[in-house]
Amino acid sequence: MTDTPAASGRSRARELARPFARARRGSAARSGRAAITGLLVTGLLIVGGGMLGSPPAVAAAPTPTPSPTPSGTVVLSASPTGTGLVALGAEPAFSVRVRNDTAREVPAGATVVSLSRTPLASDAEVAGWLSPDSGVDPAEGRAFDEVARADTDDLGAGDERTTGIGVTAESLGDLPPGVYPILVSGAGEVARTVLTVARPDAAPRTVGIVVPVTAPARETGLLTSAELGELTAPDGELTEILGAVTGTPAILAVDPAVTAAIRVLGSSAPESARDWLDSLMGLPNERFALQFGDADLAVQIHAGLPGPLQPTTLSPYADPADFRVSGSSAAPTVPETGALLSVGGIETTASDVFWPATGTAGGDVVAAIDAQAGPDAAALSLVPGSTTPGAAAAVRAVAGSADLLVYDDTVSRELTAAAAQTDATERSARLAAATALTSLRGDAPLLAAIDRPAAVDQASLRAAITTVTSTPAAVPASLTELRSAAPVPVEVAAVAAAEDRVSALTGFLDREADLARFATALVEPDQLTARERTSILQVMGNGWFSDLEAWRVAASDHDAATTTTLGSIGIANPGTINFLATSAPISVTVRNDLPWPVSVVLLAETDDPRLIVQRSTTVEAGAQQNTRVDVPVEARVGSGETDLQLRLLSAAMVPIGSTELISLTVRAEWESVGITAVVVIVVVLLAGGIVRTIIKVRRRRATPKESV
């Protein structure tokens, strides 16, 4: 289906209308000829009047008033109702929507549905018909018959209208099975879609569809309680996915980061999230685990990693109090990481299944996945059919020693687009295209995938699933059944590495090593290292492929956050200190901006022989606190300027933060000089007092004699 704007659609509408206008039959054709005859007679009468009547008086020509320019376009969309699949002799219906984005009213008229009785025979013809700008247009040389029409009223500026148009079996005629191009015209525009007539004698064929159960792309390791509450609310995205797959034979590809985020919260997880997890675990659908965060497998292999990255531990995200058993006096314990990451029971979960993002995995990637899994693991990779060109249609394949499941990415592309649609007409148009492509596959087995859409709608996702699993003669198969089929040898084409993503991952891992050394300063190093690993996996998630510009911003933000973390522990330089005593402590402030406590050693060193400094002092700094530390210093006799070098080390003797130099002004002899001066002053005062007292006594003794 295509939407044709008014700016370019009118001339194209007239061009496409010519073939089927000539092919109209019956009363429609006769009424058309009558209308043309009437127009010709009217034209002749007008011309005759001009010739036979008296010449009109010449009047001054009025100044023309410019017509208002439309501010937008008229958009026509059309699709068959449902999935565009009809049985022989059935009467299909079409949904036609007109949206008037102009400033003018669209006049009343008719909407016409026309059909070419020459079927489309290949994917290229279907693609060319639905997207005529993409290549050769198969409309050239085709005749179109009008099969239905509906009169329409005026459509005001800014308004929208959807019209249902049914096609009678008589108008449709005796169409053999196949995919037929449909042309819909109205309001001066045209739209294209397809109609598929089913084979009544279709042989049973195996079909399967993979549906990802993932959360939106994110930068941090695990979903928060608030985010889980939103995603598992009645209208939340995870609720939409679960509701769509329930009761279907879909194969689930589950991101273990979602299940872990719920389990790690224990009893503090939102009730809606716990209910959602219980429902997921209770589904009978076979499933497999994606990599944590649905991380990009291909970029990890292109970066030279020996195996896919895994979370180191998830215990830092857990609070043991949330796992306390009611009525038990035993200390609560957090489940092991493997249990937190589980996506299903043993009977429903397939192991060693890998699904690289579509278009990222070439022959080198699938070979590396097989080699990294080891000789005892039966690794299975899902790859798109576009990377196995020239191979016979097969779902189960093998490339060298690498086992593969090949999904039809052409069909999957239409299903993925349909799953994200909230508009019924747009959804049906996508499903009609998927149905047409599926029909062209004949009786061959088919595996499709809803390929990590940016968003989903429950009704649309369910319709996309049933488009594959409910087609005539379809036999839905589980992952185990698809895996057990005899493989067909294929060659997987080379796919160039995404150099920007490889470079980003390499940089993340280099800085992760820096953070691991830095984390030795923490009382619990896992608080930092575990979160860093999960964040790297999330930033490298496949969900970012729908918006690579947003991914670049996320990668830059992650790198900036790492820089901030590496500078979060340090020494606050007090500047110049006047040291006037022979022995006294110097106060130093150790800064900890992290939300976790740290334990470091403060080293103080100087090359000045006038100072004796306590070389090491253990510092226990609380979370997000500035801690004051007293460093004992003893000064020998002397004075002058000197420097004191301060630095921090972790318990593993890893330098933390930068080295700080403190300037000291030493006046250690001033203490002795001051004491001596005080003693002298005291002695002088005492001596003066004694002398004065003696003088007074002598005067008193002399006074009585003189009086007598």
From TrEMBL:
Transmembrane region(s): 673-695
InterPro entries (alphabetical)? DUF6049
Does Transmembrane show up as a keyword for this record? Answer: yes
Protein origin, superkingdom: Bacteria
Q: Where is this region: Disordered?
A: 1-28
UniProt keywords, alphabetically: Membrane, Transmembrane, Transmembrane helix
- Among its keywords, does the record have Transmembrane? yes
What's the name of the protein? 2-oxoglutarate dehydrogenase
Q: Which species does this protein come from?
A: Microbacterium radiodurans
